[in-house]
Amino acid sequence: MTDKIAKKVILLSISGYSAENDALLSQLINEKIRLFCAAGKDCAIWEESMDALFVGEGDEKDFEMMTTSHPNETFDEVMQFAETFRIEGIDNKAVTVIQI
To answer: What is the pLDDT along the chain (100 residues), one digit of tens a residue?
Structure first.
């Protein structure tokens, strides 16, 4: 990822979850994203994996992250959720979409 990542991220899974993608999730944690929305194939597993990595890294975080999964919701519904979810101190309209 070379582009700047917004503090809100929608991961749109086409291919489904694989443990090989944990490096991507760890990178998002390192970017200190604040909202992680998983949509598409295996979205609940994506959310669980992000939670496990965030908590399981052991060190205290200086930020909080909300994770959500959105089975049976359209991309537009997930985008609307992300855009309207309020987090103090960030650009609440900026959302990065990662399709994988």
So the answer is: 446 899 999 999 999 999 999 999 999 999 999 999 999 999 999 999 999 999 886 677 889 999 999 999 999 999 999 999 999 999 889 999 999 9
Parse the chain into domains and list their residue ranges.
8-99
Taking the C-alpha atoms of residue 20 and residue 95, their distance in angstroms, rounded to an integer, is 24
User: Which one, of 65, 26, 73, lies nearest residue 49 by Cα?
Assistant: 26
Written as six digits, the tokens of 90 are 């960030």
CATH architecture of 8-99: 3-Layer(aba) Sandwich (3.40)
Instruction: Output the pTM of the full model.
Output: 0.92
CB of 90 closer than 8 Å to CB of 7: yes
